[in-house]
Amino acid sequence: MRFLRLHHWLLVIGLLLAAGSAQADPALLAAINAERRQAGLGLLLADAALEAAALAHATDLTRCGQLSHRGCNGSELPDRLRQAGYFYGFAAENIALGTEDAASTLAAWLQSPSHRANLLRPEPTEAGIGRAELDGRSLWVLVLGKRY
Question: What is the average per-residue pLDDT within 85-106?
Answer without folding.
Answer: 97
